[in-house]
Amino acid sequence: MSQTFIPISKPWITEKEVEFVTDAVRSTWVSSLGKYIDKFEEDFAKFCDTKYGVALMNGTIALQLALEACGIGDGDEVIVPDLSFIATANAVLNIGAVPVFVDVEPITYCIDPSKIEEAITSKTKAIIPVHLYGHPSEMISVNAIAKKYNLKVVEDAAEAHGATINGKKVGSFGDCAIFSFYGNKNLTTGEGGMVVTNNKEIYDRCRFLRDHAMSKEKRYWHPEKGYNYRMTNLQAALGCAQMSRISEIMANRISLFEKYKKALGGCESIVLNQTLPWATNSYWLIIARFKDISESQRDKLMVSLKEKGIDSRPFFYPMSDMPYFKQKPNTPVTHKVYKEGINLPTSFDLTEEQVNFICDSIKAIVKDLK
Ligand SMILES: Cc1ncc(COP(=O)(O)O)c(C=O)c1O
After folding, report:
1. CB of 193 sitting under 6 A from ligand 1
2. Strand partners of residue 267
3. For position 314, what pLDDT does the model report?
4. Where does 246-367 sit in CATH, by number?
5. Residue-wise pLDDT tens digits, 66-100
6. For ligand 1, is residue 179 a contact (CB within 6 Å)?
């Protein structure tokens, strides 16, 4: 079978997206005012079972703003899982706070609630559970701990659009939550992010800070320092088109996962995304974890896949391993799991034949790995 290059993921752009973005351009509302901004915020907040949404430049900024709106700042400690995209920790650092790394649990790779309490100190002010690769964190336990110690909870749902816990959408469990709409996310605006919340104070604070903290009553009067973190109407138009197709987009990811499961399910040494009974998964990226493989074997596997025209990604490194973190936490599960995992292509238009080709290639390569 002749193969062209299979990328890790491609945004799903249809005529609807072209139509909405063209309309936004033609309207001349190309900056951060316009009908699509309001509609996108409304539609996406509703989709998350929340009251309010604040559209922003990207997910990292959304996380910074969400933390600030929760009153987190200089010197405060914020608990994060050690296994995540670096934006989770960088957002904490960028507002002058200190990330404290906690291990993940070995099925979902999300923060292990049983390890949180030992990381809490008198300086701890918040927890950021990350719904990694589309599987929700155990929010019921996280929220119970947060309540006991009077901590804020900011869900990092950047990767988990539409995932649920007991039938309720992620994003609606914490004091607030953030999403990313980067091009490889299930729902994209090119670059983009949003804070969603049921808390009017957090919502008002995010809107205020997003727009240079300008007084509502007095234009160009700024009672405190703010930012320009605004999303454009063009990006929001893309978001609105994607929202109008969100059921189709979500169903596509589930059916793609089923194709991988059919093709790789029988291999005992390969673990795909596992979803706990109380959750539904958004399958942002397909996971293949090769139990007890070494990091160099994992890297060789990825090189061999690339030679066959198949793109893949390694799991995120433990964030605490980055050289600018001097304190090294004890996170053995994170440090074992990260070496064993890769992410496989998740584009919307992958055929069963292509998935079978990817999976057959993996099986053949793994058999010969030294
Ligand atoms: C877990 C997590 N948090 C935050 C972000 C940041 O989002 P953005 O890339 O839109 O800044 C990402 C992006 O991929 C992410 O995966």
Report:
1. yes
2. none
3. 98
4. 3.90.1150.10
5. 999 999 999 999 999 999 999 999 999 999 999 99
6. no
